[in-house]
């Protein structure tokens, strides 16, 4: 181990993402800032894009922002920023103080990006909708309160609120939209969220004190995600199944394995519920969004984690030989389970949609079975073929499943 006494920058690693390097990073940053800034000079155009010819429903807009922040909260509660390169831990004097500083700075960067993105989108939507000062105040209060809540919980180790917290925040956004709460009431709601954040900040241990094993496990997850993006193989990041308890597989069948795969991934039910609530509120807040596209994409994202069980079997010949089941039986059993989940998700969406008083046309509901077929097609693709120098095979396999979803959504949107 080399004792350098101070935190040493690894050679070749760019500072601040290369924004001040004068290279492509600088160009992309200037271009992106210019595009975002000039959007405020085309508010009439943005009003037509977001609201069409109707006036903005600001309670629904604020409720949708609360739901979006609930998604961001759920993402940060996964604490993907807690990692360190094993090489640094082994060869550099990566002391506890250095670990705390690096992990804390990474949390601050991710959290700041979320808050800045939420603030920018809120400002653009409220400005395009012609909101008054009271709407601006309510929106800022909501974003600030949720930002404090996210930071107070993400900087601690796992809390009991990690599972139910984002869902409760999404339900709060649903109440704001469905009850058409005024800006003043929304400010009181934001005050309540802020009080909850102050209470949650006192529990758990700081993630900056994570040990070596936790940091290396986080690095492994990040490395797998990076490899999946680099080699255009999204199947690598399909979620693994958690232990399912006393479920017996001494006589394994395709149906039992499908059920075990679902039980091992029930942690994604909360995300599916968040998507259903978000779709129903988005139909009112942004009426120009096509129903088929909104429902189809949300259903696909909600169901694709539960296709992980079939994906693991499909890409593991040894397990398929051990199971001694035909490909058709695997598709049918897992497809039936996904169809049941899609039906349950549609029922939740219909209930929330009824509460919002919104209308989803029939072609919009047809996007749910389309999403089920797309998930089945995506997880049963062949392994990537890297011998094709032109990349046609890789591109075809990469879009497998998504192609059916996109084409089907286009057809349904035209029919609708």
Automatic annotation (TrEMBL):
<feature type="transmembrane region" description="Helical">
    <location>
        <begin position="21"/>
        <end position="43"/>
    </location>
</feature>
<feature type="transmembrane region" description="Helical">
    <location>
        <begin position="186"/>
        <end position="203"/>
    </location>
</feature>
<feature type="transmembrane region" description="Helical">
    <location>
        <begin position="397"/>
        <end position="414"/>
    </location>
</feature>
<keyword id="KW-0472">Membrane</keyword>
<feature type="transmembrane region" description="Helical">
    <location>
        <begin position="161"/>
        <end position="180"/>
    </location>
</feature>
<protein>
    <recommendedName>
        <fullName>Prenyltransferase</fullName>
    </recommendedName>
</protein>
<feature type="transmembrane region" description="Helical">
    <location>
        <begin position="268"/>
        <end position="286"/>
    </location>
</feature>
<feature type="transmembrane region" description="Helical">
    <location>
        <begin position="58"/>
        <end position="77"/>
    </location>
</feature>
<feature type="transmembrane region" description="Helical">
    <location>
        <begin position="108"/>
        <end position="129"/>
    </location>
</feature>
<keyword id="KW-0812">Transmembrane</keyword>
<keyword id="KW-1133">Transmembrane helix</keyword>
<feature type="transmembrane region" description="Helical">
    <location>
        <begin position="135"/>
        <end position="154"/>
    </location>
</feature>
<feature type="transmembrane region" description="Helical">
    <location>
        <begin position="358"/>
        <end position="376"/>
    </location>
</feature>
<feature type="transmembrane region" description="Helical">
    <location>
        <begin position="292"/>
        <end position="314"/>
    </location>
</feature>
<feature type="transmembrane region" description="Helical">
    <location>
        <begin position="335"/>
        <end position="352"/>
    </location>
</feature>
